Every structure is written in structure tokens, then in C-alpha cells.
Amino acid sequence: MSPDSLTRGSVRSAAEVNEQIRALWMRAGGTLSAQERAEYELLVVEWAAAIRSDVIEAA
Questions:
Q1: Alpha-carbon torsion 50, 52, 57, 58, what sign?
Q2: DSSP character string of 3-54
Q3: Are the C-beta atoms of 14 and 54 separated by less than 8 Å?
Q4: Which of 36, 40, 44, 53 has CA atoms 20 to 30 A from the CA of 26?
Q5: pTM for this model (two decimals)
Q6: In angstroms, how far is CA 29 from the centroid of its own chain?
Q7: Cα(24)–Cα(56) distance, rounded to whole angstroms?
Q8: What are phi and psi of 44, to 5 degrees?
Q9: How far is 45 from 12, CA to CA, in rounded Å?
Q10: What is the dihedral angle through the alpha carbons of 39, 5, 11, 34, rounded to the nearest 10 degrees?
Q11: What confidence tens digit (pLDDT) does each residue in 13-42 have?
């Protein structure tokens, strides 16, 4: 996942991003490498943006 994808905004739902986060943790066996940690951090930012978008659309 590139940081550029965050500047365009999240096109995936929070549920989709959450599933990718869960899959990352499963693949990593509960301990993230430095590269996996960077991917996780980007995913969390994307997830938070998706959650905010979902809340704004619902309002």
C-alpha cells in the first residue's frame, strides 16, 4: 500500500480495511516486522478515514 492512496481518500469500506488488518496480524503470527508495522500503521489511518466517512454519510 502506498502513502499516495491515503491522499486520494479511502475507497474501501472500514469493514474491508479491518479485514485486511486482521489478515495482516494472522499472517504475522501476532508479531509485526518493521515492514508489517509500517503497513499496519497505513491501514489504521485508512480505517480511521473510512470510519469518519461512514459517520459523515450516515448523518
A1: positive
A2: THHHHT---S-HHHHHHHHHHHHHHHTT---HHHHHHHHHHHHHHHHHHHHH
A3: yes
A4: 53
A5: 0.74
A6: 18
A7: 28
A8: -65, -40
A9: 12
A10: 0
A11: 999 999 999 999 999 999 999 999 999 999
